[in-house]
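User: Show me sequence and structure for the first protein, then do the same for the second.

Assistant: Starting with the first protein.
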Amino acid sequence: MKVSALQHYFSHFSIRSARTAILISALSLAGLPGCASMEGKFSGTQSENLGPFASQTIAVIGEADFGFTEQRSVYIREHLPEEGYGEFLEYSNSAETLFSAITDYSMKIVNLSESAASNEERINGYADYVAGFRKSAIKTLGGSTDDQAQLVAKIREANDYLEALRTAQPLIDAVQHYGEVLLFDMEKSVNILAQETEVNIDEDYLTLVEYTELLESKRNEILLALQHIYEYEDGDADALQLLVDSNVVRPMTQKLGKSPSEEKLRALETHLIARLKSLSAVAATIQPDWAQYRATHEELDRLHDLVQGEIRGARLSLLTWSRAHRLMSDGKTDPAEWFSLSTAAGTLLRAGKNVVR
């Protein structure tokens, strides 16, 4: 069974993955300042100066070009396998939701850094935030409630806010791992979807393809027969036998004899040209359908390549964000270093980004 319309294909997906919905519910922040005031919040003067981390996170996420809400399909919508299509929608939505959660988390730690009056309040606020993660979310990330409790206790023992963030790095690493697995599964899903859709396209256009191939075969036979006539007239005696054996117009070719007259050759030529014109007229009639068939395949290839590129970009963005969080919490004071691609590890990231582009 196929999906009859593609209104939501590579668009806003209403299907939500339960696991990722749980994750974003756990990581989302309550009472976050509105967008209009966020720029001011990101420019605070606290010693941690975490504002750039949130703004750079948003930039990195945007750099991956998450076009899940922008792509449209014109041709392939009628050929999508329902099961494969639904599975891909879930993975796509999960990836979109995950990166929204990452952005929310980044904004939350800035919010705590900028709004808390004291270092102790920032540490305890962050500990309370981590403690508020739902059990199901911690389980999704591969942990347990005991792991969560131990992590929260260690966060509260931190001497400063950066140490608290550094203590929670295993949580960030778990999010990265979850995202990598999700993107890996999504990549497999879109590859299977593309393969199944391609099969459906060819099956749905099978009659057209077979008829087009038949027309092409007949056209080539006629052109070859005309070639034999002209070669015979140019002195190639073997060309006459090839013409007779071709049976392109059996009643006429069998009457040619060993030395056909000019009249017979011209009559056969006229008949072949008339048939060629007739075939061309039929081909012109079905040309729009053939063009749509080719356009459908081309659109599938384009969208498949586009999503594969987005997945690679998402994977690199995820790695970049996790690495930046580690550098920031390790005490790197220059925000430019957090997302820098000048180090050895950064060089690998930069190389990967260039491949994606």
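Switching to the second protein now.
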Amino acid sequence: MFTNYFKADLFRAKKMKSPYILVAVLLALVLFSSLALLKFNLGAMGIDMEQFEEMTSNAANFDGLQDSFDINIDVNAGVEGENVEVPSLSKLLDKGMYYYDDIPTIFNAQIRESNAPLILAIFIALFVGDAYSLGLNKNIISGTKRRSQVVLSRFLVVALATFVVHVLLYLFTLLSAALMAESVKLAFSVDFFVYFLLSWMLSCTFGFLVAGIATITRSKVASVVTGVLLSMGFLTLILSIVDHLLVKNCGLPESMKISNYTIVQNTTMLSVGASSGDIIRVICVCVIYSALAVGISCLVSKKRDIA
């Protein structure tokens, strides 16, 4: 029966129009991000690579906002009363921070841009939400005693969708590098394959969370809004503010920050050649969040009144 449920959900996902539109949107977002990463010369504005890496690795937390504010002050220091030369468009669109880098480094920068989670949040919310809004879930569950299999089949489709999007993101990164970078340097290595797997696990876990929210709320709107907010790092930002207050006022150790254990923060912190500690933390985060999302969804599906 599980195989039949999976085939039915997979067929329904293929028949939806939104995946093809969202893939086109993902391509546009990747090309736009690549323009900023590969062609936009931040050096002309007084920002070096070290400052840029520090900002992007902490993009979704309070420390990242502080770094951006401090860098903005440094760049504009001494502006008052002076004639400041504004960089021309030709200098700004020249050679970006990642112009000379290899594909794994550019791919890591693209993942930090959070384009894929945004696309996944919309698709998964629509895919799971349709089962409730169209009455499909009630018809299917009423004919089976193993309701958890229906939920698990959808989560398997979600996992497959996240993998497809991850592969597409890599292919779009190759395309953007071919168009805008100095050259396409594949630089395959064991570290990159480990990074690819871990980053997909984080993406898959994020998809499970959105699917779980859609299953619990039975609302496409609620799950889309929540998924988009999560992909943009709003939860991580709120937790990082709490962490900042706890560190400042209560002496909380830096290693115990709550925001370090969110999916978005781990996605931005993870890099090619990550340490064993980072790898273990990512795996634990993925296992815990995935188990909670799947487990709660299965428990909710067993209640007849919300079938």
